[in-house]
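agent> Task received from the user: take the single chain below, predict its 3D structure, and emit structure tokens. No templates, no multimer pairing.
agent> Plan: (1) validate residues, (2) run structure prediction, (3) serialize to tokens, (4) report one or two observations.
agent> Step 1 OK, no nonstandard residues flagged.
tool_call: predict_structure(input=
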Amino acid sequence: MRKLWLVAIAALCGMQAAVAQSTIFVVRHADRYGTEPDPSITEVGQRQAESLGHLLAETHITRIFTSEALRTHQTAEPTAQRFQVKPVSIDATDVDGLVRQLRQGLHQGEATLVVGHRATVPKIVKALTGKDVEPLTFDEYDRLEVVTLFPNGSSSVLTLRFGH
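)
tool_result: status=success, residues=164
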């Protein structure tokens, strides 16, 4: 009987491992001031960043990637503090390099946050999943793309809204 229980537990553990996946949250930076070349986020943007951190509170983020822009760092900051994760900065024009780093460090059951830009969010999702998402509008700062990568190579994309 004891052997039967051990076999049952081993089977359940194997089933758990078989369904484990990795989740990558891809978001545009929060609302920003219009000044260039590297504007910071506005007070509204700060509330959006805090809302994002709150939304992701139960996701156990282990990695965070941002571009080199101040606004992406500021957007990631509440989540980084919550999980005590130091964000990694990647050049915004190097989507392939970002995706390569995402895939190389991927562990099943792990969650990653990527804070990008209006033009890069759809490209990152497409590179990870092969699926297209709608382009972001000029004033769209509240869309979160939830990319799930399954061990068998399949993926899904779910679009959420936050920060209202």
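agent> Step 4: summary for the user.
Residues 21-161 form a domain with the Rossmann fold fold (CATH 3.40.50.1240).
agent> Done.
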